[in-house]
From TrEMBL:
This is SDR family oxidoreductase. GO terms for molecular function: oxidoreductase activity. One of its GO terms (cellular component) is membrane. PROSITE patterns: ADH_SHORT (PS00061). Transmembrane segments: none annotated. SUPFAM superfamilies: NAD(P)-binding Rossmann-fold domains (SSF51735).
């Protein structure tokens, strides 16, 4: 997709990856609408982007998810890209994980992106647009000490794959972004537990650049090759 003068909703623009991606898309000439939960963080990103329109939403409230898509579509007069960069982590052995933590992970990491994606598709269909969603490497490599977090991302990834098959007939690209560990502070903000030992973090700027390339070139997936320690776009 040519990015210049196209319209993008960035959900999770208050977060580390979402904020960096919003900057890159703005630099590439996109008109951005920003959504997030933290009002102050969102306002800060908006002012860095010259006052981009923005609104808060709450991922555990599905009405709020649908509403933010409609508000952005109205504000920008159409959507060419919906990028979902919200998410939350939790760590610890399965036996010690509280049901409420599992429920929260499945709501924020799976249900919310599904609802956001479903609300976005009719808008994206009108303009041959792209739905791009951050799942995680855990969708490919479910990991001990992160069973519930892995499951929430694997379910999201499965939904994106099946939806891509449906949506392509209607001219919509679906990009499943499965980054490796990057040092964004997500682990420190986990709902519970401390992360197991992970390989060194991938370079955040390289991950962000590769995601933007994937959006531009209509990639289906971003994957991380653990043997080669390399990001790979899949078409
Ligand atoms: N960092 C990694 O190693 C890594 C690796 C693979 C995949 N990912 C995925 O990449 C995405 C972005 O993560 P990040 O590393 O940039 O982490 P982050 O900085 O913590 O960003 C998380 C974002 O999710 C939002 N969020 C969390 N709970 C929410 C809720 N209940 N309602 C609305 N928004 C909510 C946060 O909003 P507020 O800040 O406004 O509260 C923030 O915008 C996530 O899906 C994550 O799973 C990250």
């Amino acid at each position: 997709m040519r990015l210049r003068n196209k319209n993008a909703l960035v959900v999770g623009a208050s977060g580390t990856l979402g904020g960096k991606l919003a900057h890159k898309l703005h630099e590439a000439g996109m008109n951005t609408y920003l959504a997030g939960r933290d009002r102050d963080a969102l306002a800060a990103v908006s002012s860095e982007l010259g006052g981009a329109a923005h609104s808060t939403f709450e991922a555990i409230d599905t009405d709020s998810c649908r509403r933010v898509v409609e508000t952005a579509a109205d504000s920008l007069a159409g959507l060419d890209l919906v990028l979902v960069a919200t998410g939350v982590a939790a760590f610890g052995p399965t036996a010690n994980t509280e049901d409420a933590v599992t429920e929260h992970l499945l709501t924020v990491n799976t249900l919310a992106p599904v609802v956001l994606g479903r609300a976005s598709l009719p808008h994206l269909e009108q303009r041959g647009g792209t739905l791009a969603v951050l799942s995680a490497i855990l969708a490919d490599h479910p990991t001990a000490g992160m069973a519930d977090y892995s499951a929430s991302k694997a379910a999201l990834s499965a939904w994106l794959t099946a939806t891509r098959r449906e949506a392509r007939r209607r001219g919509v690209d679906v990009f499943d972004i499965r980054p490796p560990h990057v040092a964004t502070g997500l682990a420190e903000r986990a709902l519970s537990g401390t992360p197991p030992r992970t390989p060194p973090a991938a370079d955040t700027d390289e991950v962000v650049e590769t995601i933007v390339s994937g959006i531009r070139d209509s990639a289906h997936e971003l994957r991380y090759d653990l043997d080669e320690q390399q990001l790979r776009l899949v078409f």
